Amino acid sequence: MRYFIGNWKMFGVPKSINILNKINSFHSKDKNRKKYRVIITPPYTLIETFANYFKNKSISIGSQNCYQKEQFSSNTAAISPFMIKSVGAKYTLVGHSDNRSEGDTNEMLKNKVQFALKNNLRVIFCIGENKKDKKNKKTFSVLQNQISKVLKKKFNINNIIVAYEPIWSIGTGKIPSKSELEKTIIHIKKVLKKLFKKKNFTVLYGGSVDGNNVQMFKEIHEIDGFLIGGASKSSKKFIDIIKNYYR
Ligand code: PGA
Question: Tell me, what's the pLDDT at 105?
Fold first, then answer.
């Protein structure tokens, strides 16, 4: 199964549902539709409307983040996994670099993953090295650390998707080379295998994915799909990624 996940970040108002409508009608008619899933993570304000609207359709809705407590608490503006699940989301991102840079620690991320899973949300766990780590050839150890500090053996890995997003690639138009990326994805799967004693994992790539470079990514069979930021805000760009992937 492949995944095409659109992360809208701080984008979208109720009428932006038109974008999803176009993606949904493409997906529902696509001859390859059984091979992949489409998930969109709009801002919190739109989750309920979108999740209701797409309830019996092909698109699934997820959240971009969740708070590190389970149900209700006295943290102003916080939104828990329980609350996200209650409005129809099926997935949540955890550990996006935007949130890590705003203070999310491994301990917080561990709680987020734990409580999200407990509330039957599937987790899309984001990891990635920054420019300096890459320059100092620390990519592998950074990723290993990000995984082992957050993903605990007792977590149900079947409900966790790992998204590898090099921070230097997010929103920059820069992407890793094919051989570099292939090695990194294999490394991530190796780390997961050691931790969970299992064979198959879902590992996505994210960072400046578009309709042109997806041709290169598709040659790396270890990549199980994509987390798409900028290009997910346009139905045409998002659909082009899927079309070119299966061409
Ligand atoms: P991008 O964002 O596709 O715009 O690089 C990816 C992400 O932040 O998830």
Answer: 98
| Nearest alpha-carbon partner for 57 in 84, 15, 28 | 28
Q: Could you read off the pLDDT of 159-186 as tens digits, one per residue? A: 999 999 999 999 999 999 999 999 999 9
Whose tokens are 């997806």? That residue is: 214
**Catalytic residue positions?**
96, 165
Enter the pTM of the model: 0.98
Atom of ligand 1 nearest to the CA of 208: 5
The 10 Å CB-count burial string (b at 16+, else e) for 61-76 is bbbbbbbbbbeeeeee
Pick among 3.20.20.140, 3.10.20.30, 3.20.20.70, 3.40.50.150: CATH of 2-245:
3.20.20.70
pLDDT in tens, 50-104: 999 999 998 999 999 999 999 999 999 999 999 999 999 999 999 999 999 999 9
Q: Which atom of ligand 1 lies nearest, measured to the CA of 209?
A: 3
Pocket lining: 206 vs ligand 1, CB cutoff 6 Å: yes
Residue to probe by mutation, ligand 1, list 124, 161, 209, most atoms within 8 Å of CB: 209
Ligand 1 close to Cβ of residue 104 (< 6 A):
no
Distance CA 115, CA 66 (A): 9
Residue identifier of the C-alpha nearest atom 3 of ligand 1 = 229
Does ligand 1 have an atom closer than 6 angstroms to the CB of 207? yes
